[in-house]
Each structure stands twice: as C-alpha cells, then as structure tokens.
UniProtKB/TrEMBL annotation:
It comes from the Bacteria. This is 4-vinyl reductase. Residues 46-108 form the 4-vinyl reductase 4VR domain. InterPro entries: NO_sig/Golgi_transp_ligand-bd (IPR024096), V4R (IPR004096). It comes from Cohnella fermenti. Gene3D superfamilies: Trafficking protein particle complex subunit 3. SMART domains: V4R.
Amino acid sequence: MQEFTFEDMKQIKREQLGDQVPLELFQLFRDLRIGLPEIVHQEERLLRVAIEDCFCKGLPVMEEKLVCDLEGAIMEGALSRILERKVSVKEIRCNVNGDERCEYEIRLL
C-alpha cells in the first residue's frame, strides 16, 4: 500500500474517492493499515464500501468465513462520529471467503 498523508488525500480527485467518502475515514484506515475504502454502491441510506488491500489479503481461503469484524466495528464507530449519526456496518464479502476484496454494507440509521 502506498503511503499517503492526509494532505495528499485531500488532493485526490473526488471521483476517485467517491463523493460521500469522508477523508477522515481514509486517514484512519491508512493510519491503522487496514486498507483503502472505496464506495462501490450508493443509495440514500445505504452504502457499500469495498476495502482494497485489506490486511487479510493473502490469508488462506476458508469458505463461508468473514473475518474482518474488527474493521467493520472501526468503520461503524468512525462513520458514526464523522457523520454525527448512527450507522450499522455489516461485512458482506471477505478475501478470506475467496472474494476479490472485502466489502461492507453500511446503513445510515
């Protein structure tokens, strides 16, 4: 994963990051070395966020296993604080399950 500063992230074109992804979330994930979040689907109260280069990438495949609950909890807490509203985060895809990347469903409550 490339090393970016928070100031670097501010300079990236918004279409690459997605219009609704808070830069603070990118900084948090970078600092914690979790991966790079990207919005892959968006509705009024629902987002799907994929994590590129998730820390679990490269672990042995174990079908029907979603192992990134901690990252989902971090994302839920961070987004709740950043957006100043409750959110619910659920992992729906995982590298360990054999999926191409980890993905989370985020519901704005």
